[in-house]
Write a structure and sequence with these properties.
The chain has about 190 residues and is mainly beta. Helices cover about 5% and strands about 45% of the residues. It contains 2 helices and 15 strands. Strands 7-15-9-10-13-14-8 form a 7-stranded mixed β-sheet, with no helix packed on it. A 4-stranded antiparallel β-sheet has the order 1-6-4-3, with no helix packed on it. A hairpin with a 5-residue loop joins strand 13 (about 145-150) and strand 14. The longest helix has 10 residues, at about 5-15.
Length: about 190
């Protein structure tokens, strides 16, 4: 038998990814009987058959209308940390074998600034910056992007890694990390 960590390292070495529990999903139909449209913000949670689900995108229900939209099983677990404007800053969220690596990261650089959602990338080196070459001088310009990497460990813990200022920006200010813990399809609603 192998330890969970050595299994994870073997899968990673072979180019694979451990994705954790696969969440259940469903389609919900919502009806609005009022004269005012209703907006359901992204990541609004719903309880269905005893399970917690969320909608991955903002959904608007027109006045006296109805709409169908997907929901995904997951209980949001939020962690707020402070970015220190240092290279390759790392934070850990979740544990208990339930995190499915569905993570959102929002950074608010200053208390009076608008929070920005950062994008997940597979590789900081390949996807962490926009590079262009000046056709006249042949000099390269490198613009670090607002991105992060997430790595799922066999314990269910997710590591969030930010850039070094060249490949991916270095966050500063308040960082809200939301992970969605799923039971792995325990609330399958099909059939």
């Amino acid at each position: 038998a192998q330890s969970p960590l050595s299994i994870y390292e073997s899968v990673n070495l072979l180019g694979g990814t451990i994705i954790g529990n696969i969440p259940s999903s469903a389609t919900v139909m919502a009806v609005n009987g009022g004269a005012t449209p209703v907006v359901l913000d992204a990541y609004t949670t719903f309880t269905i058959n005893g399970g917690v689900f969320y909608n991955p995108t903002t959904t608007t229900i027109a006045a006296y209308g109805s709409v169908s939209f997907p929901v995904i099983e997951g209980n949001p677990v939020q962690t707020t940390v402070q970015g220190a404007d240092i290279a390759n800053q790392i934070f850990y969220v979740s544990n208990n074998y339930k995190c499915n690596n569905l993570v959102t990261v929002t950074v608010q650089a200053a208390s009076d600034s608008i929070p920005a959602t950062w994008s997940k990338v597979d590789s900081m080196w390949l996807d962490g910056s926009f590079r262009e070459i000046n056709p006249i001088t042949q000099q390269q310009t490198n613009i670090p992007l607002t991105v992060y990497q997430s790595t799922l460990y066999p314990t269910g813990q997710v590591q969030i890694t930010f850039g070094d200022g060249v490949n991916g920006q270095r966050p500063q200010g308040s960082i809200l990390i939301t992970a969605y813990e799923a039971s792995g399809g325990a609330y399958n609603l099909s059939g």
